[in-house]
Design brief:
The protein has about 600 residues and is α+β, with helices and mostly antiparallel strands. Helices cover about 25% and strands about 20% of the residues. The strands form 9 sheets. A 7-stranded mixed β-barrel has the order 8-10-9-13-18-19-25, surrounded by 5 helices. A 4-stranded mixed sheet has the order 2-1-4-3, with helices on one face. The chain has a 3-stranded mixed sheet with strand order 6-22-23, with no helix packed on it. Helix 8 packs across helix 9 and helix 10 packs across helix 15.
């Protein structure tokens, strides 16, 4: 018993004590460590030093030969963190190696941009270049994609370099990015520190998160947001036009290359899904959506993904001119603190895979679009993201909105339940000096990254456009319901000989899968493949299936009922006709209750 010793083993999850004898073999000791920490035989590496030197290999030698004494600390690293194959701690070869790429499955667009040269090639200047055709000088040598002078001289100027240009900046130079790491910010106390009692009784410099100084982010993960056509946005805005209430939706589309910016990335929006929500003229509340995962699956089979969210903040100014108020500007705010926190929450739900990050993820490509009034008092679409620092503050529950001042946030103070690091931002005082302020309160402009939002000159249509479109989901308040009667009406009004044009409607496809009478489920996969590939012959094959024959039979049965949906506001709704319940204002088209003599929206008389 005198030869028994205690060896401490520190891992990312904490410190554990292993009882061994000096005569015990190294392999037996490693088995005890593996059993204690729950690893396989090759799932970790053990070192004598914290800097990963002095690795202890498995052998039949005795522990006494390693000169390990009672109470010594050894350092354990899982296989994903340790060893010469690890991207994180390997400093002998540049980052971005093939084995690290395989370990982190990145998006296809990221793989494509990573392989590109990215340099900005310039033609020979006939006035300044004094060399031959094959020579190069400072006036015609290719520029790097992160060259700030080039970006500032674009029309319009580009304030933020693209994310892949930022990666080139980190991985360039003599060291080729050997020491480049994109570590995610954390605001939480590191677990496993046993040198003191847990918070709030104790804290040390090893486990205490560092203070954060907010800086305006120099890069952005998405450089442009483009709606495929105006119809997508118009149908979304129709809800506000008809009710005066705000609206929120999720953007489904794809990420493509944005060639106007070096190594740029664009989010193309093909459809907007409107989840269950409670809407008023001044507020929005999202409700639980049981169909959310089904919508994501349908979108994935169509080659789409959730790329962002959109909401309206509109107030009518002059209904006769059709103008809206210009409320979001440099004198008020562009995004409120509450909206920044919501954007940060969504971005944390959709992280961006990155090969240079120890966690495998860094930042997010998820975008925010606001439909609001512009300087010309017309509806404008403004795109934003929040910075990675904001994402960290939201993820670790450190940021709160101010009740009365929407443009200000507030960083929590530490309590017995949670330690919050100090957060600072830099400002200019009245004497022109740069000063550091504590972020209580915090101007949210330090957290916002603006993104240009555009519509193409030549519209693109991933889905068909019809003047008699299928109703959008969760709009029962308008009397627009998704049921077999509305499906029968839609099919009777769209009698195109091309079945693919009739069925290519994002909201219709969602209804066919999620309806309660006859959900199609996996049997719709063939149709989704036809819509994705735009192949009429595959759509005709699905049209001849039993499922579509059953749907047509249900539609014909529903349309034969004497009480049609044209007589009622919505399914299982009131028994009195809708025409007598509401009237449409001839000035602004707002639907008013029948007992109103004046329009609630524009205050003009009924006649």
């Amino acid at each position: 018993m005198a030869e028994s010793i205690i060896i401490r083993v520190q891992s990312p999850d904490g410190v554990k004590r292993i009882a061994v004898t000096k005569r015990e073999s190294v392999s037996a000791f490693l088995k005890k460590v593996a059993k204690e920490f729950g690893f396989g035989s090759n799932g970790f590496s053990l070192y004598l030093n914290r800097n990963k030197t002095g690795e202890i290999p498995s052998s039949h030698k005795q522990l006494s030969g390693l000169k390990i004494k009672h109470g010594d600390m050894l350092f354990l690293y899982p296989s994903t963190y340790a060893g010469p194959s690890s991207e994180i701690m390997d400093t002998s070869t540049p980052v971005g190696r093939s084995q690290s790429v395989a370990a982190v499955p990145e998006d296809d667009i990221d793989e494509c941009l990573f392989k590109q040269d990215g340099k900005i090639y310039r033609n020979r200047d006939p006035q300044l270049c004094r060399h031959g055709l094959l020579g190069k000088c400072v006036h015609c040598v290719p520029l790097e994609p992160f060259d700030e002078d080039y970006l500032n001289h674009l029309d319009p100027p580009v304030k933020h370099m693209s994310f892949h240009a930022y990666i080139r900046k980190l991985t360039g130079g003599a060291d080729k990015g050997k020491f480049a790491l994109m570590e995610n910010i954390t605001c939480k106390i590191k677990s496993g520190c046993e040198g003191h009692p847990p918070w709030p009784e104790g804290i040390c410099t090893k486990c205490q998160p560092s203070a954060i100084t907010l800086n305006r982010q120099k890069y952005r993960h998405v450089d442009n947001i483009m709606f495929e056509n105006h119809n997508i946005a118009d149908r979304f805005l129709d809800f506000w036009r008809k009710t005066g209430n705000q609206r929120i939706g999720f953007l489904y589309g794809r990420y493509t290359e944005h060639k106007d910016i070096p190594l740029g990335l664009r989010a193309e929006v093909a459809a907007i899904y409107e989840p269950p929500q409670v809407a008023t003229p001044n507020s929005l509340e999202l409700l639980d959506d049981p169909k959310a995962h089904i919508v994501d699956e349908i979108a994935a089979k169509l080659g789409l993904r959730k790329v962002g969210w959109i909401f309206t903040d509109l107030a009518s100014e002059d209904t006769r001119k059709g103008t809206v108020k210009y409320s979001r500007n440099k004198d008020t705010y562009f995004l409120s603190a509450e909206e920044c926190i919501t954007a940060g929450y969504f971005q944390n739900l959709h992280p961006n895979a990155c090969r240079l990050s120890p966690d495998g993820y860094f930042g997010s490509k998820f975008v925010t679009v606001v439909a609001t009034g512009g300087p010309d008092n017309q509806v404008h679409f403004e795109g934003y993201q929040v910075s990675n620092q904001c994402m960290a503050l939201v993820r670790d529950d450190c940021l709160l909105p101010c009740r009365d001042v929407p443009e200000l946030g507030y960083v929590k103070e530490s309590s017995s339940e949670q330690y919050v690091p100090d957060v600072f931002y830099k400002d200019i005082d009245k004497f022109g000096n740069e000063i550091t302020q504590l972020a209580r309160p915090l101007p949210v402009e330090y957290l916002i990254i603006d993104i240009t939002t555009t519509f193409p000159k030549d519209p693109v249509y991933s889905f068909s456009v019809s003047p008699n479109a299928f109703p959008i989901e969760n709009r029962e308040v308008l009397g627009e319901t998704q049921d077999f009667h509305s499906l029968a009406t839609y099919l009777s009004q769209n009698k195109s000989s091309v079945f693919l044009d009739v069925i290519s409607d994002f909201h219709l496809l969602i209804y066919l899968v999620t309806n309660e009478v006859m959900p199609l489920g996996e049997s719709i996969s063939l149709l989704l493949d036809a819509v994705k590939a735009r192949k009429e012959e595959i759509a005709q094959m699905w049209k001849n299936s039993e499922q579509w024959a059953t749907i047509e039979q249900l539609c014909s049965t529903d349309s034969s009922h004497p009480a049609s949906m044209q007589e009622y506001g919505h399914v299982r709704g009131p028994t009195h006709p809708t025409a007598s319940a509401t009237w449409s204002c001839q000035h602004c088209t707002f639907m008013n209750p029948s007992n109103n003599d004046h329009c609630e929206m524009c205050s003009l008389p009924r006649t």
